[in-house]
Design a protein that fits this description.
- The complex is a heterodimer of chains A (about 240) and B (about 525).
- With about 240 residues, chain A is an alpha/beta fold.
- Chain A has two domains: about 5-120, 3-Layer(aba) Sandwich (Rossmann fold); about 130-230, 2-Layer Sandwich (Alpha-Beta Plaits), CATH 3.30.70.
- Chain A contains eight helices and eleven strands.
- In chain A, strands 3-2-1-4-5-6 form a six-stranded parallel beta sheet, sandwiched between helices. A five-stranded antiparallel beta sheet of chain A has the order 9-8-10-7-11, sandwiched between helices.
- In chain A, helix 3 (about 70-85) packs parallel to helix 4 and helix 5 packs across helix 6 (about 130-140).
- Chain A is globular and about 60 Å long.
- Chain A starts with a strand and ends in a 9-residue tail after the last strand.
- Chain B has four domains: about 1-165, no CATH class; about 180-270, Helix Hairpins; about 285-410, Rossmann fold; about 430-515, Alpha-Beta Plaits (2-Layer Sandwich).
- Chain B contains 24 helices and ten strands.
- Chain B has helices at about 1-15, 15-30, 40-60, 65-90, 95-105, 115-130, 130-140, 150, 155-160, 160-165, 165-175, 180-205, 215-225, 240-285, 300-310, 320-330, 340-350, 350-355, 365-380, 395-400, 410-420, 425-435, 450-455, 505-515, and strands spanning about 290-295, 315, 335, 355-360, 385-390, 405, 440-445, 470-475, 480-485, 495-500.
- In chain B, strands 3-2-1-4-5-6 form a six-stranded parallel beta sheet, with helices on both faces. A four-stranded antiparallel beta sheet of chain B has the order 7-10-8-9.
- The termini of chain B are far apart.
- The chains are: A alpha/beta (about 240), B alpha/beta (about 525).
- Chains A and B meet through helix 1, helix 5, helix 6, strand 7 and strand 8 of A and helix 15, strand 4, helix 21, helix 22 and strand 7 of B.
């Protein structure tokens, strides 16, 4: 695992859910609160902090910070403070509405989760497209056999320098390629006319859906591996 | 003996299903605004009224076709007579009054006092017959005796019957009825002014030969024409004293006119909200397949916009005036009713089974959401209810209240974060698919019997030609999703295809599925 430390700012239900979900993915999870907490594991921080203690302890490139303070203004201030001190830190922030989502992005958050919009999106999908919602949810969030994976084309990959339209996908049964993200980070869907002429280059990312063993098979066949790196991911 | 017979007849009618059903049928088509046939009856009656009036006007100077005259004088009058009798019949139930009296007396171990019951029934029927609407109905029948020339003018009473059939007239009269006391005061004031000024002008002018005011009638005529600020000028005061009275009457006239105008305006202003609400409720009762949103807070606001963008109809209920105003400003039909009260649904006259697609409890308060869900469940067992969960400790309570789907935003954040840190690119792709920002969407295509007639296997669908990715098939029969199905898999009625692609390609593909007809 590339990332080593998760920093969670805020002591609330969102923070608890985040900690529960990311604990197994990071070697260290550090929780910070603005107030003195009974729990010894929770460290106190101040918005005026100069973050020296954190700066010494963590490798910003290898870490991720979650800003989940309930007060929007404080959350934005926290985000901007973190970005000012840690250029390479990946920051994920929670926003209560679109307005604060924009401000958080301006403050330097890599990814903002707009709570209200996301909840509304999910409910709309549940109501309007119940089957796709169930399937996508099981692919994304649940421990189903069906998985979504992102595979980075390496120098040695068989797909390297091949035109997308010329690939015989029937050889890779059980796999559906949803999207090809070019190395310049622009996503295109495989059946779109624009992308058919695209020549796959090292650094492109394929987003695929399939069963675990089929994905492994696919990895072997094309000679590329699953890939996660936040530092390459920006908006 | 006779008493026994009447009692038996009353019990028979009261318990006879066919009699009660017929009575209800006639009540519905005559009096029940929610009955779909009532508007046709009303429209037919209005046509009859206009025919009668047209015949009356034509008859003044020209000869009217005899058949038309017969139709206007006899047929229409007869139809109105039938209508009058039916209304009298459905206005109250004599059998019910007799049975209630019999039950009451029997319970108290007394002999049944039939006379009292009949008196009460007579009283109830008479009070209906003496109501203004019933009197107008009766007078509208009188032109039947058109041989009496004077009675022909009663055709105009048929015009008053329009009040019964046109809802806007009823609204107008109900609005004016709220200011009964003020109108009464105005009438007294105007009468006093007219009386005093008529007498004064008569005293001042009657003995003057040059004055056109010679009788008390002339004086009253002059007073009313002057006070109403009409002032024809055919009758005017000529003496100094008379003109002085005229000055006073003109001043009083302005006051009367101002008072009258302000009364009308204030009556409508005060009732405007109510009138609008009645109109909204009427509109709601005609809507079908809508989402009922209970509570218009942040998530509800966002969700309503998204659902409305997808072409759905939205009705918002909230007991907070500020939020209701916000919903109305956002362009939704919003009603200031408590979604947790049974009374609200009764007033709104919503048939949950037939009209509501789903009920969404979106208050940011679990107590309110549970309360609303329980209220809805007490009215309907089957409707789909979705609710927000704010505090996870209340999850069980929400389930117990009969909520079908619970959405817990905090949990979503956790799951999203997990996926986001694991597969950020893949997550973003799925997110884009869901949010429709790029034009590429994931969609469901329901398999109908028509599609099955033309396509039997997955391979025949030809989705690739339309640049549509078939993610899988949901088999309704097995309640199972088959990812990336083989070309040989059979498709069946009730299945769903889960497809990904540009909206426009998916639409074309769907069109192709529905229109292709197999040859040979």
């Amino acid at each position: 695992m590339d990332n080593t430390t998760a920093l969670v700012f805020g002591k609330n239900k969102y923070a608890s859910e985040i900690v529960a979900n990311v604990r197994d993915k990071y070697q260290h999870v550090r929780i910070f609160s603005l107030y003195n907490e009974e729990d010894n594991e929770i460290e106190k921080f101040d918005l005026s902090d100069s973050w020296e203690n954190i700066q010494e302890d963590i490798n910003a490139k290898q870490s991720i910070a979650f800003c989940v303070l309930e007060d929007t203004a404080e959350n934005i201030f926290l985000t901007i403070s973190l970005r000012a001190h840690f250029q390479d830190l990946t920051i994920i922030a929670i926003a209560s509405n679109k307005e604060s989502a924009n401000k958080l992005k301006m403050a330097g958050a890599n990814k903002v989760i707009p709570l209200v919009e996301t909840t509304a999106d999910i409910i709309t999908n549940m109501l309007e497209k119940p089957i796709s919602s169930r399937v996508l949810n099981s692919i994304l969030y649940e421990e189903s056999d069906l998985k979504i994976a992102q595979i980075k084309i390496s120098q040695e990959s068989r797909f390297n320098n091949i035109q997308l339209a010329n690939i015989d996908w029937s050889r890779y049964n059980g796999i559906i390629v949803l999207s090809v993200i070019h190395s310049d980070m622009q996503g295109e869907f495989i059946y779109s006319s624009k992308v058919e002429d695209h020549i796959i280059k090292p650094g492109d990312i394929l987003v695929i859906v399939g069963y675990e063993h089929d994905i492994q098979e696919f990895e072997k066949k094309i000679g590329s591996k699953r890939y996660v790196n936040w530092s390459h991911w920006s908006w | 003996m006779l008493k026994r017979l009447i009692l038996d007849a009353a019990y028979y009618l009261q318990t006879s299903q066919s009699y009660q059903a017929r009575k209800k049928f006639f009540y519905d088509i005559l009096e029940n605004d929610n009955c779909k046939y009532k508007k046709y009856i009303d429209m037919m009656m209005m046509v009859f009224i206009f025919i009668s009036v047209a015949v009356l006007i034509r008859e003044v100077k020209f000869h009217v076709n005899d058949y038309l005259l017969f139709f206007s004088n006899y047929i229409i009058s007869f139809i109105f007579f039938i209508e009058y009798m039916l209304r009298l019949w459905v206005s109250s139930s004599v059998s019910e009054i007799i049975v209630a009296r019999a039950e009451h007396d029997t319970f108290l171990l007394r002999e049944v006092n039939l006379a009292k019951a009949l008196r009460k029934a007579l009283h109830v029927k008479l009070s209906y017959m003496l109501s203004i609407q019933a009197i107008i109905d009766l007078l509208a029948i009188l032109p039947f005796f058109h041989e009496l020339r004077l009675l022909r003018i009663f055709i105009l009473f048929r015009v008053f019957k329009l009040f019964r059939y046109a809802k806007s007239f009823q609204t107008l009269s109900s609005v004016l009825a709220t200011k009964k006391f003020e109108f009464f005061t105005l009438a007294i004031f105007a009468s006093i002014v007219i009386f005093v000024s008529s007498v004064l002008i008569y005293v001042m002018e009657a003995n003057n030969d040059a004055s056109p005011i010679n009788t008390l009638f002339d004086a009253i005529y002059w007073s009313i024409v002057t006070i109403s600020t009409v002032g024809y000028g055919d009758v005017t005061a000529v003496t100094q004293e008379g003109r002085f009275v005229a000055l006073l009457v003109i001043t009083a006239g302005i006051a009367v006119l101002a008072f009258t105008t302000s009364l009308f305006v204030s009556a409508f202003t005060e009732k405007l909200y109510e009138i609008k609400e009645i109109k909204t409720i009427e509109d709601v009762s005609k809507l079908k397949n809508f989402y009922l949103i209970c509570g218009y807070e942040k998530v509800a606001q966002e969700l309503s916009c998204k659902l409305a963008n997808n072409g759905n109809k939205i009705i918002v209920l909230d007991d907070d005036e500020y939020r209701i105003n916000k919903a109305q400003q956002d362009g939704f039909i919003a009603l200031h009713y408590n979604p947790g009260s049974v009374e609200s649904y009764k007033k709104l006259n919503i048939d949950i089974d037939k009209q509501v697609k789903a009920i969404l409890c979106l208050r940011e308060d679990d107590i309110e959401n549970v309360y609303t869900a329980l209220t809805v469940r007490s009215l309907n067992k089957d409707v789909f209810i979705l609710s927000l969960l704010i505090n996870d400790t209340n999850r069980k309570k929400l389930k117990f209240a009969g909520i079908n789907k619970i959405v817990y935003p905090q949990e979503l954040v956790g799951l999203i974060t997990k996926e986001l840190v694991g597969k950020p690119v893949a997550f973003e792709v799925i997110h884009e698919l869901r949010s429709d920002h790029t034009g590429v969407i994931v969609d469901e295509i329901g398999i109908t019997s028509r599609i099955v007639e033309n396509f039997t296997t997955v391979g025949e669908l030809g989705n690739k030609e339309f640049r549509v990715v078939l993610l899988g098939i949901y088999k309704h029969k097995d309640d199972r999703f088959y990812f990336n199905p083989l070309d040989s898999m059979f498709i069946e009625n009730g299945d769903y295809l889960l497809v990904i692609g540009y909206k426009i390609f998916i639409k074309e593909f769907e069109k192709h599925l529905h229109t292709k007809v197999r040859h040979g």
